[in-house]
Known about the structure:
By secondary structure, the chain is mainly beta. It has one domain: 7 Propeller (Methylamine Dehydrogenase, Chain H). About 5% of the residues lie in helices and about 35% in strands. The chain has a five-stranded antiparallel beta sheet. A five-stranded mixed beta sheet has the order 2-28-27-26-25, with no helix packed on it. The longest helix has 13 residues, at about 10-25. It is globular, with a radius of gyration of 21 Å. The two termini are about 35 Å apart.
Amino acid sequence: MSRLASPCWSLAGILLVLLAPAAWSQEDAPKKKRNEGKVKTEAKKAPAKVELEFPPKLPGGEALVTDTSPDFLKPTKELPEGVTIAKTPPTVDFAFFPEQDYPGRPWSNWGESCVHNGKYYCAIGDHLAPQGAAFVFEYDPATKKIRTILNSKKLLNMPEGHYAPGKFHSRLGVGKDGWLYCTTHRGSTTITTDQYHYKGDWIVRCNPETAEMQIVQAAPVEKHCLPCAHLDPDRLIMYGGTAPGSKEDTRGIQFWAYDLANRKMIYSGPDGPARAMMVSKSTGKVYFVPGHENAPLMRFDPATGKAPEKIPGEIGIRAATDETKDGKIYTAQSDASGTTLYEFDVKTEKVRERGRLDIGSERYVASLSVDASGKYIYYSPGAHGGGYRDGSPLIQYNTQTGKRKVIAFLHPFYEQKYGCAVHGTYAVSVTPDGSQVFICWNAARGTKGWDCCALTAVQIPASERE
């Protein structure tokens, strides 16, 4: 990966480069990476230090740039048999998100995004601790403008020295009431303690039309963070999985279901999901597996409010799509052998393996998005920052044929032209008609670790959706 030269250095810039990789939250890395043993490597020269400018800027002070190029269709390495490349390069809008006007630790995206009424919603945070800040943005492809609609620091207004979250780690969702809902999560794993007056994290919401912000519930699960949440927009129920605030808390991951309309907990109990779950729009039932594993498969029915029950089946759920019109939910799970795509039928509650998603060395898929037809799923492997090693591909999976097609390789194009390498994403969302895919990227401007977040809006050529 090429690096940007800089004529001068600052102490802040040097410290950022040295500290940013260490600041990445290991609880958000794929499990296989956390369990890897030490590997001996040859000594390497220290990378050149890069002084970073905040806020990040595009050349010429442009707020957004638009490109189409045959370079989007050039792979960085040989692809597996059966994986094709689009014939027509897409048109792509690129921009840096606002609010990044100081160094984060690092600025990063950890939660899934959504599309509502033709607009894209995603979240980033500074990962600072004990007092951080996180933001939700609205991108309007019609005007090509980005607007801040939720600022956690302003909303929570915590006293100095008190814990304030550095991330919106949950999936974003807009309910039938028109409000966007999400949950907060810590930056560092060491500061959700009594020392920083930690009581628990928050369910929050904002109105996309007015940008009004509200706290829905403080500490729905006492002294637990809320990294995993999924909204049922029709029934206005938020489902989630927690993370204990401290090592002394032996309760483990809790599963919870919260009635947003009546502001009350429906259920809270042990053995919850670590990162994602399946919510059936047609039945209202919720499915998950405890922790990070593929079994047992659990079902929760909010109509009864009873504890989740085990049902037959084994499935990995690190990421999940919405339910399609024919009652299918697709999920992804990565392990040492690759990334598997699963299909779950909400009517029969049967699981079917659909094949591999990875196309190179990077396997971690943390976001899947399916169009309204249910035919095409979009995703990008390498969520935790390694996606650039495979060219930061946007991949289209055809659920009818099982074929994988790369719509665009977004690296090294943006690094070479604008000095910003898009490293990985937890937030990929397609419009219902399948014409555009939005991605919130963890990005780097010449440094090894991420230092900022950037947006790409990829227009999918009609010829690639036939």
